[in-house]
Amino acid sequence: MSDKVQLNQEQDRILSIDFFRGFTMFMLVTGITGVFHILADSQKGGVVIALINKQLEHADWSGLYAWDLIQPFFMFIVGVSMPFAVSKRIARGDSWKKAFYHVLRRSLLLLAFGFMLGSDKDGFSLTNVLAQLSFTYMVAFLLMETDFKWQLAVSFGMIILSDVIYQLWSVDGFNQPFTADHNFGSWVDIAITGKLSNDRWVAFNAIPTSAHTIWGVLVGKLLMKDFPHRKKILTLVIPGIIAVIIGYCMSPYIPIIKRTCTSSFMLVSGGYCLLAMALSYWLIDVLKYRKFALFFAIVGMNPIFIYLFSNLGGKHLLESMLEPFTWRLFGWGGEVTFGVITTILVAAMVWYICYFLYKRKIFIKL
After folding, report:
1. How far apart are CA 303 and CA 297, in angstroms?
2. What is the sign of the dihedral through the CA atoms of 169, 172, 174 and 178?
3. Which value, in Å, is the radius of gyration of the alpha carbons in the chain?
4. For residue 66, which of 41, 55, 213, 360 is within the disulfide window of CB 3.0 to 4.6 Å?
5. Which residues lie closer than 8 Å to 307 by C-beta, 6 or more apart?
6. What is the pLDDT of residue 5?
């Protein structure tokens, strides 16, 4: 049985969904972006490498770089996958109540993992993507069977509510909606955890970013329909372009700030989610570039496992195992050559772990 046939039979999904999720996870967990960081820090590669490297960093506060889209992509693609997973459960006889308990259990586990990754003996944080996803995942599920108009209304309502609270919050020192550490989200973090969160991310982001997962659910339902390819792509592209344009037009008045998920950021990032999904669908399911898709899709087969592996020291362990060999083989080229090759090999090993699990049909689920 070929890999691509096996993939479709195992996942029973549109392959572009697996590609989208896999590409996002590949960027998030393998550390491959470190190649550009090393080259840019050493001033190798000139202007092109410097520009690419800049896009692989978070905006310091306001503004948007490509790397700021990774978390929205992750939360969005979880939503896209949900209608497929739930419909599969219902088809095999599960009731809505049983599906709800499954989602509740997953949400609690995601919250526990997010708490674990964002906490230490000196304090805790709920800004990790898994902690945020634990909330957005449950909200999206509870709305899944409602009319799409209600889902849109709730998603935009949560975004607008967030903006209004930030604008109207009157507590001294935390009434500056677009100032780092002096906004409503910062006040919530201090109220919950007793301190400001690291890097100015705020736990309250779970409220507006629920829209990413809700929009993903709507896209998943669209892709399940027996519509022509052209109709599906246009249904993604047109709202995507409109959202990006409106978001950027809002930015002079409501800055694009990922760390507090302002409404302008939500529209721009949500628009890019739709456009990226449309591009993935066109490349993979229309033009049939399936071998290319499989390379990335493999990484997305065990997304939570590989995310935890990478964030709990797995990449560092692999790097420690490789360095004695790569330094002796490539150290003659200097620190840059050694660093680039080690980074690429670590990324390859992370990918191979995913491939090893995939070939043995091991899919670790919550």
Report:
1. 10
2. positive
3. 21
4. 55
5. 25, 28, 29, 130
6. 39
